[in-house]
Amino acid sequence: MTVAYPGPAVVVEDVAAAVEVMRSQGLRVSASRRVVLTVLFAAPGPVPAEQIADGLGGRFPLSDLGSVYRNLETLERVGLVRHLHLGHGPGLYAVAERDNQEYLVCEHCHAVRAVSPTDLDAVRGRLRDDFGFTASFGHFPIVGRCADCRDAPPRDHDHGHEHGRHA
Amino acid sequence: MTVAYPGPAVVVEDVAAAVEVMRSQGLRVSASRRVVLTVLFAAPGPVPAEQIADGLGGRFPLSDLGSVYRNLETLERVGLVRHLHLGHGPGLYAVAERDNQEYLVCEHCHAVRAVSPTDLDAVRGRLRDDFGFTASFGHFPIVGRCADCRDAPPRDHDHGHEHGRHA
DNA sequence: TTCGATGCAAATAGTTTGCATTCTA
DNA sequence: TAGAATGCAAACTATTTGCATCGAA
Fold first, then answer.
1. Could you report the per-residue pLDDT of A93-148, keeping only the tens digit for each?
2. How far is the CA of A147 from the C1' of C12 (A)?
3. Does nucleic acid strand C have an atom less than 7 angstroms from the CB of A100?
4. Cα A91-A95-A54 angle, rounded to 5 deg
């Protein structure tokens, strides 16, 4: 089950602080949950559940993929974790950031650019003025061409399948 | 396999015209392909492959889901068909429109609003000015709250699973 | 010592693919 | 009648779930 509507972000510095939050929420602090948090803090950006179960390529203890998904859901519900969807491919998870990041993803080079919501307020304003629509780009990012790829010739799978690098 | 980067849209009025295009592309005109096109022309909006295989609820001949996917890919490659992704849930397919529709989808009521690309030029302009980014919303739509749902309280699965109605 | 969390395996959804057969051109 | 497209089944990816066991509080 995908997470219920996520509550407000709970931003913490490190695993220890996250553990405090978990306890304060009545959640149990298991080894598996520590691993999930440790991997997320060590990751260079949003990562798929599979990489978490892999211990980010073996650098951390492995855990069961099913439990990883369950823990991610739990951690997202309390606000410690967020996830987003980059085009096709698996969902990507990250620790919640101070300002609920939003994203621009290049369909050509798959670069992911994280921006703070205020940076998109002008865009959001236009959408609201023109369509009465209040957009959010934290869960389903803006897709298109980054500056570097603006004029690159289209290639197979520009609507692609693989998940991206991070900016 | 998802479609390779789709070529320019080929907009036609009806199945007969689509068949012409297929022939002109050296594609064979099979019963199964006629069904796919017939269903797409009869559909009220973008529909999942499954509904096409179902003959849109039995109103049209059924066909094999695997073949439907293959045909959709082929038809999309020649430009007769387009598909988009609404949040979670299956991809949705439609006959190519005159102006390569883009979409706004409400994460709350799941309404899908199709707009022509020029209507989003102001939004696109801001994105280009502010980030050097050229956005496109035809394949991965803008997600947020429509005017009606702007103030509705969040509910479970606002990041939801089901696919939406059409505007 | 209890109830929440885990691990494992099976189930599910969406989509793709291999292969023998069928049918279009 | 050659090669493209089909139908069916199996494979695959991402994710969820049931259940017996384990472990944190």
1. 999 998 889 999 999 888 899 999 999 999 999 999 999 999 999 999 999 999 99
2. 40
3. no
4. 60
pLDDT, tens digit (0-9, with 9 covering 90-100), for B53-93 = 999 888 988 899 999 999 999 999 999 999 999 988 999 99
pLDDT digits (tens, 9 = 90+) for B115-127: 999 999 999 999 9
Q: Does A98 touch chain B (CB under 8 A)?
A: no
Q: What is the DSSP string of A88-142?
A: SS--EEEEPPTT--EEEEETTT--EEEE-GGGGHHHHHHHHHHHS-EE--SSS-E
Based on the domain organization, do A86 and A109 belong to the same domain?
Answer: no
CB of A61 nearer than 7 A to strand C? no
**Which of B74, B85, B65, B70 has its CA nearest to residue B10?**
B74
In a domain, A8, yes or no: no
Within 8 A by CB and 6+ apart from B140, the residues are A87, A140, A143, B84, B85
In a domain, B4, yes or no: no
Does any domain span residue A41? yes
* Band (A57; pLDDT cuts 50, 70, 90): confident
A22 and A78 within one domain: yes
* Residue A103 Cα, gap to closest chain B Cα (Å): 11
